[in-house]
Amino acid sequence: MPFPRTGRTLLGARRVWRTPRATGKRTIAYRRGVEPRYDTIGHGYARTRREDPRLRARIHAALGDARIVVNVGAGTGSYEPRDRHVVAVEPSDVMAAQRPRELAPAIRGTAAALPLRDGAADAAMAIITLHHWDADRERGVREMRRVSRGPVVIATYDPEVSGAMWLMADYLPEVAAMDHAIFPAPAVIAGWLGGEVAIEPLPIARDCQDWMLGSFWAHPERVLDAGARSATSGFARMAPEVVARVVAELGRDLASGAWHARHGALLELDDYDAGLRLIVAR
């Protein structure tokens, strides 16, 4: 079967995979020279970034009947199907060590050079990870298209929409500016993928179990929770003085009732479009 195996060289000498090493919690195949962002900001991620069943259902439906799925930027394994063969590719030891034991170990690798042959998988998925690929975003998307003989499923944010959410619009314009730089517009991603591509909104429920930054639309109190903040890359990538300012300003507005006066109507909604998009290429 066309799966990567540790201890072998795949697709040329530049992809040399070492034998697995123990991390204490998981066994992870790794490659030298990778210093992923989430090795710094990923500690404790799995405590608040749990799968939401509604988002999971949409993602799995988009995968269709694919039996072999490559998950790029697999992280802790959220939204990975449990009933299919998954090849998980993740550059961060910190994130991969938080994967549940029932999931396959994550191969150390990056989106820019997937260790798979052309058409090796029935489908490829990347869930809220594309913005961490930096200069390799286009190359990574094209790599997903290369290795998948079926659908490519990407969940990501539209920065034009996410930047209008009250948190960014009123308190954290630095994240809105950063998101415009790191999140490609969905239409741009569709162009990289080529072929037939659908772009659909993924509304975030008020009781979403995945505490991504978009889920804060109905939970301003999470901004005051250091654990919830640090599990979002938006806050984790901000300077400490920016975070302190936002916490102080929002804390005052919650205490005075000013936030509720401006945005309290949101709390009556069941879900909200915070800019999360499902992009599916066939």
Summing up helix and strand content along with how strands pair, one would put the structural category as: alpha/beta
Radius of gyration: 19 Å
Write out the CATH superfamily name.
Vaccinia Virus protein VP39
For the sheet with most strands, the description reads: 6 strands, mixed
Please tally the β strands and state the result: 10
Give the SSE order as H and E letters: EEHHHEEHEHEHHHHEEHHHHEE
Q: Treating each run of at least 4 consecutive H or I residues as one helix, how many helices?
A: 13
Q: In whole angstroms, how far apart are the ends? A: 23 Å
Query: Order of strands side by side in the largest beta sheet?
Result: 4-3-5-6-10-7
CATH architecture: 3-Layer(aba) Sandwich
- Shape verdict: elongated
Sheet-strand content, in percent, reads: 5-15%
| CATH topology type | Rossmann fold
Give the class-level CATH name: Alpha Beta
Q: What is the total number of structural domains?
A: 1
What percent of the residues sit in helical stretches (DSSP H or I)? 25-40%
Overall average residue pLDDT: 86
Q: Uncertain segments of ≥5 residues (pLDDT<50)?
A: 1-43
